[in-house]
Amino acid sequence: MSMINSTLSPARLPPGRRIYAIGDVHGCDATLAAIHADIAADLLARPVASPLLIHLGDYIDRGPDSSQVIARLMRGPPVPGTEVLNLMGNHEHMMLSVLAEADPEMARLWLRNGGDASLRSWGLEPDDPPSAWRHQLPTPHLAFLRGLSLHHLEGEFLFVHAGVRPGVPLARQTSDDLMWIREPFLSFAGDFGVVVVHGHTPGADPVIRKNRIGIDTGAVLGGRLTCLVLEADQLFFISR
Fold it and tell me: What's this model's pTM, rounded to 2 decimal places?
């Protein structure tokens, strides 16, 4: 485990609230388990009145253990009494779209982006037709994926998988932008009205800007899985 010392956050949370936000997991179940253990240790060492754990999406694809990641998330919080919120990423959206529409071209796109590894983690064959996948995947896992949230607003922070479209109010943001956007979100230097905490765009290190915090550090690409910890006007990172 590595931990970056606390620094001033670009926004703040109400007193008594602490948020742990975890970036893109991509089938790295053992790493997620280690981060969850780090969170449990932090809560034991520094209890807080109201902890919240947010997973920012992209639980599946590319890595070897997508089904195990989903099973872990379905088991609930790593520390009893901790609130948990799971957001939808573009990879979950791709998978659900393929299963709903059974479109061969969409299926090929998903498989090229790591869907083949996800299917194998459930014991399925990528060469089978999409209609076969739909009937063989565990119903509780599909229900979990369909129930994922698109965003969460807390204090002066907005948590979302990919980002937001500049100049568009939150109520009018499209689901595609919330799950898929890169530009013009990433290069926008203006005020979103909140500080956006997001994953989706991998980098070697977390990105802290006055208007956004990016925490996809390429867990399945030879990088690390990163957890952002927010409390009051401070932040730090835990990574594995």
Answer: 0.97
